[in-house]
């Protein structure tokens, strides 16, 4: 069976599209002044990240990324924005201190990025050797119900407690207002 | 042509994850509303997940471990967002604002 002509080029192009989608979404999430655009940036970033998960041989995580982040987290944040109208007010401090804090933030960010990139480029990572399973969805399900069954149960408990806690916290203060 | 394609390099994913982490920290410093900080925190979560998945794909002998770990990270991130948003709503009820600079009142 001969592969489709130009297949490596097409795959590389799709990878670059996913990567640039993620980068552009992250930029939008951080740099835009209106929060609703920032949430849209987070959603775009997560869609690109799902593509990267697909390239990392994990279609389940790609699906879960879109389902949980785009479908649940971003929609919940949009609801919070609609309820609380959290628009950033104009800055009240002097422009000198704004500039100083901005430079400090940019400097620390660039330092973190350069340091981690240098580490990633200059370390020798071990090659995996023989894989002990294929990492398919069936293998994940088996691992979740055998090796990680305790963590699986505990995370369900954590989600239950989080839901109850969120309800209790958001409810208090509603009546005497 | 025998070169490894770009999507099979560990370093590409590592640099992408470092970029996400750096942007998340930048947003965490620069944002002045709680919701904006929450969004930046989600970016940092994504960076950690991408890093774990990259190492899982390229260096781990068991490809299931990283996927299970990232699934747990997603579950905890969802729980964290629910709690944080309910706290934000409660704060907005009390202060009529979610700007971090104005929420400076302690009650002990």
Please, could you describe this protein's structure?
The complex is a heterodimer of chains A (177) and B (108). With 177 residues, chain A is mainly α. Among the domains of chain A are: 10-87, Four Helix Bundle (Hemerythrin (Met), subunit A) (Up-down Bundle), CATH 1.20.120; 134-177. Helices cover 75% and strands 0% of the residues of chain A. The radius of gyration of chain A is 22 Å and the shape is extended. Chain B has 108 residues and is mainly alpha-helical. Chain B has one domain (6-95): Helix Hairpins (Orthogonal Bundle). Helix content of chain B is 73%, strand content 0%. Chain B has 3 helices and no strands. In chain B, helix 1 packs antiparallel against helix 2 (34-58) and helix 2 (34-58) packs antiparallel against helix 3 (63-95). Chains A and B meet through helix 1, helix 2, helix 3, helix 4 and helix 5 of A and helix 1, helix 2 and helix 3 of B.
Topology:
The complex is a heterodimer of chains A (177) and B (108).
Chain A lengths: L6 H25 L3 H21 L3 H26 L10 H28 L14 H9 L3 H23 L6
Chain B lengths: L9 H21 L3 H25 L4 H33 L13
Helix pairs in contact in B: 1-2, 2-3
In short:
Chain A is mainly alpha-helical and about 180 residues long. Among the domains of chain A are: about 10-85, Four Helix Bundle (Hemerythrin (Met), subunit A), CATH 1.20.120; about 135-175. Chain A is about 75% helix and about 0% strand.
Quick tags:
heterodimer, A: 177 residues, mainly alpha, Four Helix Bundle (Hemerythrin (Met), subunit A), 6 helices, extended, B: 108 residues, Helix Hairpins, 3 helices
Oligomer classification: heterodimer
**What is the overall pLDDT average of chain A?**
87
Note the total helix count of chain B.
3
Any idea what the shape of chain B is?
Answer: elongated
Proportion of β residues of chain B? under 5%
Task: Sketch the major β-sheet of chain B.
Answer: none
Question: How much helical structure, as a percent, in the residues of chain A?
Answer: over 70%
The largest chain-to-chain contact, stated as pair and per-chain residue counts, equals:
A-B, 90 and 76 residues
Global geometry of chain A: extended
CATH class of the domain at 10-87 in chain A: Mainly Alpha
Please provide the count of β strands of chain A: 0
Low-pLDDT runs of 5+ residues of chain B are none
Whole-angstrom Rg of chain A: 22 Å
Would you tell me which CATH topology of the domain at 10-87 in chain A applies?
Four Helix Bundle (Hemerythrin (Met), subunit A)
